[in-house]
Structures
1.
Amino acid sequence: MFKAYQDIFTPPGSKLFSAAAFVARMPISMTAIGIVTMLSQVRGGYGLAGAIAAVFALATALIAPQLSRLVDRMGQSKILLPAAAVSATAIGALLLCSRFGAPDWTLFVCALFAGCMPSMPAMVRARWTELYRGSPKLHTAFSFESVVDEICFIIGPILSVGLSVTVFPEAGPLTAIILLLIGVTLFTMQKSSEPAIRPQVEGRSGSVIRLGSIRMLAFTFVAVGIIFGSVDVVTVAFAQYQGYTVGASYVLAVYATGSCLAGLIFGLLKIKLPLQRQFMIAVALMTLTLLPLLLVNNMVNLAITVFFSGLTVAPTMIITMGLIEKIVPEHQLTEGMTWATTGLGIGVASGSSAAGWVIDNIGVQTGFAVAVIAGTFALVIALLGYKILFAAFKPSPAIKH
């Protein structure tokens, strides 16, 4: 059944760069939730913790496309390691400021510079596109990487929250730093699979965010990111309210498990519907599966609810990356894919901050309404931008056998 996934690893070096990317993207799932867990213990309350995590996520979302644009112009090996070093240094400074009681503003400054973390999901997908552009294997490769993303979100929160709760508060983010540096170093060492630097096309050198279809996808993903950010923060607070703080990591792992399973199955399907319609259906299902969050009253109910909601996540990501691959020029592919995750990051930042404020000022249970409202906005944006997306879609190139 899964032979299609085995076949994508035929090219030399494909296993190595995918494995390195797995390690390098682990900090994405560990850092923000680790910051929330750490600061909620050290400083107390979720307002400050959510705000710091939001600044980190927002900075990452805004800086990552610029890094990816440099990557498209100069290559992955020249940009990724310096960027990762800046991010790791800033996160380390954040941990020290937290530990030694530095003023709150120093935490915000550190979180800002920590946003230099590169978008590793975009980098690894760019390598797969280099190998399989125009081939059905690209859909399988994108599906595989979406599953790997979700595996990271299964392991990452458990590892980060678990370490911060059971060892010392800074242990989760500290581990993220180590994994970031190791993973990016190993990834950039795989030079044989690095995408070629393509010459900039005259008149097409501006940012791809100028394309209406890319803006529509990015804005939709802002709303999707609010869902993720709010669910993360509210889950931690809800678990603490229930007297089982470490249980938050298990609930978030269940969320990611649902997405992982859906991604594995989706990657094997041959769906004939146009990608634009698939995107609309996926966003609609994501919105509908969030509604039961309003009725959650214990950890078991929460785990069941987020599992079914998670079933919509990976397919939505796979479809979106497939759309972007067909919309943007080849020489701007990495930047295009990063803008999708940028929208996601901005949403995560907003969702974390909004959820933290709601928890502190209204109540834990009300925090889930943030995710439901965000899901509704995602559907509205997708509906309003459907014609733009349909007009921008270009036909697939001839299939390679």
2.
Amino acid sequence: MYSGHTDIAILGGGLAGGLIALTLARSRPDLDLCVVERGEAFGGNHVWSFFASDIAPRDAQLLEPLIAARWNGYDVHFPGHSRQLATPYRSITSERLDAALREALPAASLITGAHVTSASATGFTLADGTELRAGGVIDARGASLLPHMRGGWQKFAGQMLKLARPHGLERPIIMDARVDQVDGYRFVYCLPFSAHEVFVEDTYYADDPKLDAPALHGRIAAYAAANGWDIAEITRSETGVLPVIAAGDFEAFWRARDCNTAMAGARAALIHPLTSYSLPDAVRFARHIAQLPIVTGAALEKASYDWASRHWKQGKFHRMLTTMLFAAASPPDRYRILERFYRLPERLIERFYAGQNTKGDIARILCGKPPVPIGAAVRSLAGHGQPLSVLDDASGAQARR
């Protein structure tokens, strides 16, 4: 186990913390690092995916060793509309993140199976009483402390299916909403990792965070059967419940921390408000941290606050769309909003997922006949639509895509 003093301690070895560590190891070899993970492996048990257009060319090399599969396009299906898009799509896995961290950093700098009970800007304490000091601390342990935010939940169960015969998919299906619309907006997500392997995820934009994993596993099996896929083995299984943010008080959220550390990833609300998509922001923030001239605890905390505050302000439009999705559309009809969205220009869709929509994009998304009743949309934006959930049960949520 690491002992003594380190320049930067990163609490949480998931996507956000892992990418910060990899970026620092590459661009700031002068810094001593320490990464602390509660699990026995870094990254947990996850598949994270992204569009190639999400990532700036200068950052692509960082993710290259983590990529487990890649495709030149993807499909979407809705009850009234299907479309093939040409945007390249990539998936990385927790196993590759774990391997990359172990290759980039000395074994003594990587702590697993360790529960952090308290932290400050200059150190942290483990459950066994061990106290470690650092020049600065970055807390990347996942979403928590969200009672000052409102919205809904994206929840999912995913399984890697090894099939007896080829599945026939040439590219991912990012959204297949031709399924029963239960528990909010429901769609199935498919990633063909090989001719006989497909990762299938049953996903919901729901009003509450309760997840019935056995029920979702049953629906995955039913979806496979409907496609003629004979399941020989299930080689991977994961679940997640992610906050989808419609409104909130960012300053109150930031003040609610029980320590004055810097924060990263979902813990700093660095997620796409509507999709819970976190990878593009994790990459950008990691690069930002690596470029800081001073990395003391106070400097890291200020840098993370400034970055997260700007991200919050830039997310105003996406929070408005989240409000319309949850407060203006009835749960069985929420798919209509995404169905209409996927009729828009492909470059606009790329910028949307990357969180970089232009003013022209915003106007294009909002123009025309809305996919929800106009009265309901107006009431939702005025705060008089269907009640939004208080996001106070997000502890342990894992950013996925």
3.
Amino acid sequence: MRSLTTFLALAIALPALAQTKQDRPGIVNFTRVDAVVACGGATETAALDGLKADGFKAVINLRLPTEPGANIEANAAHAKALGLNYVNIPFNGQQPDPKAVDTFLATISNKANQPVFVHCGSASRVGSMWLVKRVLQDGWTVEKATEEAKLIGLRSEPLEKFAIEYINSHKK
């Protein structure tokens, strides 16, 4: 009985991982993380209607304007028409900039932006940003945050390494 009690106590104490993958029209790799955050990959302009209908208040797009199919201007205009806050934080996965992470952390923690949908092309850059957020803002361990980031879409070893280096340089 004691081992069951210990197991249940540990299960309750551990942070929950990414909750649900969902098929959503116009959004690649959609993951509902919790009540105030969802993440994904490439997002078509029309998919913003569904996000608005589901109560999202903001969209954070990590794609570069030069990426094929990014449609940042069209998405920003449509989001504005829907009353969504649309924030583009260009995050280059080949040459990640710590300033982009600084901006992301400030934007994601702003309660006025919640619930928020965060996306890039595949969700790998989103996963790396989420890894940083979970450790520095939510107090998760790097191991548990990395596990969740990979469930969300982190597939790039260089982006994972960048995120961990960022975390190590910003721990208090």
4.
Amino acid sequence: MLRTLSKALLIGAASLSVAALSVTAVSAAQTKLRIQTHYAPETPSGKLLAEYVDNIQVMSNGEIEVEMFYSSSVVKSVETFDAAATGILDCDATGGAYQTGKNPAFQFVGDIMGGYGTPVQQLSWLYYGGGMEAAQELYNKYDMQLVGWIVYGQESLASTKPIAGIEDLKDWKFRSPPGMETKIFEKLGAKPIVMDFTEIFTALESGIIDGADASGIANNVGLGLYDIADYANFPGFHSMPSDHIACNKAVWDAMPEHHRRIMSTAIGDLALKSALTFEKKNAEAVADLKAKGITVSAWSEEDMQTFRDAAQATWPEFATTPEAKALVDAHIAYLTQLGLVKK
């Protein structure tokens, strides 16, 4: 009897050991990611990305480890996507608009310009208007996986000259990201100069440019642009870029499903926090800038509509590939439902 009991206990202990080893094997899955962003760590967007990284590391119980590179410290901002696709990095935390040279379709996942009015509208297109399916097909074509979007709201301009309306755009030299924006502003009389995000401050300081399209007004403050520029516009209207988290597809596919789910879910939290954070921080930044003597101009509805008209007239010029046309058609259909594009 005693011998039988001892044997049963030994078998039970062995079974528990095997189960424990199985649990250990499952929980030992490790994902190590190198991610680059163009944002400086002290900007609101940089801090929010740091929070995202902390969240995915904690929620994975340390199974996901991230080495984060800020201010495009490994490669230039525009090169981040390729660096991730080729394995120099693992993930890209910049935005699709930097990749319009590859395919103009990236313009319409990065910054449609003159389209949506709020982050919620733009995010609803991605998740509920057919946007994710169309965008994922585009990213996968270049060996990348779109994890999700961060839309912080309308951007504001920084300028060393008055920027109170359409008339002030004539001969205004400003930093522009690559892509459709250069065409739209050229039509309105401005002189866009494409340069890397990290070069803006020096170019403003040296007078190479009169102004810059960099980011939302709170991020612009974090970048120190209004230490040089005495003029801004708010609320913004011209650009509402979608920053993204996009990863090397082979790296993404090799990750355990629960790691992928953690990263995808956490970016929804990041998107909401970004929109809410900038609603508050932009208002605080405007009040602070005005108190310091910075001229902050709200454009008239007529001037804003002139810009939207120029932007929407430019969309077809960039719909020159099947992927771009599919995205433009998807945007127009959804914008029409929202009443932002008239039939």
